[in-house]
Amino acid sequence: MRRIEEADDPRRRLLIRALAAGFFSGSLAGREALAQALGTTPAALPPGRSIYRIDGQVVVDGQPATLDTRIGGNSTVETLAASEVVYAVGESAFIQRSESRVTLAAVERDSMVVAGLNLLTGKILSVFPSGKAVRLATKNATIGIRGTGVYMENDPEQTYFCTCYGISDVVANDDPTSQETVAATHHDKPLYILTGAPAGENIRAAPFINHTDQELMLIETLVGRRTPFVFPGGQYQGPRRGY
Questions:
Q1: Residue 144 resides in a domain
Q2: What is the mean pLDDT of each run of 10 residues along the chain (243 residues)?
Q3: Radius of gyration in angstroms for the set of CA atoms belonging to the chain, rounded to a whole number
Q4: 86 with 52: CB under 8 angstroms?
């Protein structure tokens, strides 16, 4: 488990500290720290706005992205080295890490309702509205979710998948006998989904890594929601659950 001070990117360390100060304290200092790090205090994005924050170089549908770029339900989003983007599409929202490529799938052409997400490479934290089924895919896994916050990392050997809250049906692509349903309230059962292990053994327990509750709170805020967990007293400073 990584605490805030061990986060892998200095900008992300600053972001998480600012989010903690802004979300978990009502102090003026906390709000000022949050605004300094993010440029603005988090709030629901205005109509027609997709991107909340860009660090570095981001490409949307083959074109360099700016804060004015619109991301649709069928867009492809790519972050280059040392880059990150925070964005929303309809009622779904995302933090896409460096060197990641994601294709979205809408329920129908030109819709802003996300029905699918394919993580081709990299890492992404996502939140989706309750009551709507979404299909997630990587090289190793196919995952059906319902009203869920999730974090995924994809590499050639395995997929890391955390159901932060909600319900996920996880299946290993090359081994349908390896499948698991996770009902989580707070990162209860992260998983590795593998390729090449014996039948029935391609899903294994994993640790909690590389994402925080503050980041989930940020992207839920962008679509006008709150996470299902709260922490009183402004004392929460990092992931509580360790494995």
A1: yes
A2: 43 56 50 50 89 97 98 98 98 98 94 96 97 94 94 94 97 97 96 96 97 96 91 43 30
A3: 17
A4: yes
